[in-house]
Amino acid sequence: MARAPLTALLMAEVISVTGNHATRLALPWFVLETTASAGQMSAVLATQMAAMAICGIPGGAFAARFTPRRVLQVSDLAQGMLIGLVPVLHAADALSFPALLVIVFLVGSFFAPYHAAQRVLLPSLVGDDQRALERANTLLVGAARSAALLGPAVAGVLIAWVGAAQVLVLDAVSFVVASLLVTLAVRHTGPAGGAPSKVFAGLLVLLRDRVLRPWTAGQCACEMAVQIVLAAIPVMAFLRYGGEASTAGVLLMLFGGGAVVGNVVVFMLLRRFTGTQLILAGCVLEPLALWVLAVDTRLVTLGVMLLLAGVFLGLLNGPGAAMQIERIPPGLRTQGTSAFVTVVLAAGAVGLAMSGPIAEILTPRTVFSIVAILYTAGCLLAVVATVRTT
């Protein structure tokens, strides 16, 4: 296992994802500060999500002509320059709202190719051994989860201290630092790239493979369920649990913190159990935690079950990502992973759109019943996919 390059990749992931999640808070806050318009803020968030969905599959096909290392370098550098452009144009009084939407769209367009390049790069760093791939993917997911928790917290403190525009400058610098880290520490390795295949080649791989087809469908259902939970918690905290923003913050932190702990636990469990065994365990334990909430929605139960759900999520993420990479032909891994990310994000966007209305109209017990049904269906499909690998 190439420890130094893998460590550099993990550090770059922490820096990049921290900057990414800080931007997700700083950019909407910047729009609110400068326009006082919640509608324009929503348009910015929707534009970034649309870019991820629209550009994911063609972006993966285009990125396949380059090495994964080059894709990571360019993606981080380009995102840093684009985000940095926002405060620069604002300071020059030259930032129109349409220009801001274009910048946000371009930033979002790099998401899927970047994510795919990371996964494609891992086999060249750790080898093709399944156990090594499972552990490396678990580390990568753990790094991303930790940074996802760190980013908004850091951004919130810094926004209050120096303002949203200055935080965007720091976010831009973080992306540049991540790009430099990959440049200096991760040597040229992985697929050499070449002429891109057909735009939908990656999607066809997911549809035709007997393992990837049910796995992808299952992950779509699970992502819908997760997005409903994450978006519904603030609404339920406001309407059903005392109306305190701190309640929503604690609940979200419990889920996110559980996910970080889960990846650490899985990394240790992989010394004794196979990835297949852990995926199957996750497919039982994760829905079980959600079904408890379909019965008991007291606040303390909600907190405990969200913590456990986060932990159990780790059983699926790292080993599942390794299984997915192994099934995709090496020459199509960038396209296949980009297609997977795009399809799952699209499903998550549907869950996100559903979450507000159902959390406002329905009781928490009914909301979690819907979530549990979705997640159980997703896990049943994941079981089918996992069993087909044995």
Descriptive report:
85% of the residues lie in helices and 0% in strands. It is an all-alpha fold and 390 residues long. α2 crosses α5. The model has no long low-confidence stretch (mean pLDDT 82).
Question: Which key phrases capture this entry?
Answer:
mainly alpha, 390 residues, globular
Produce the secondary structure layout:
Layout: H1 3-35, H2 38-63, H3 68-91, H4 97-109, H5 111-126, H6 130-162, H7 164-185, H8 201-208, H9 212-239, H10 245-269, H11 275-295, H12 299-327, H13 333-361, H14 364-387
Parts with pLDDT < 50 across at least 5 consecutive residues: none
**What is the string of SSEs from the N terminus onward?**
HHHHHHHHHHHHHH
Which whole number gives the mean pLDDT? 82
Number of helices: 14
Percent in strands = under 5%
Strand elements, count: 0
Distance between the termini: 25 Å
Summarize the structure.
By secondary structure, this protein is mainly α. The chain is built from 14 helices and no strands.
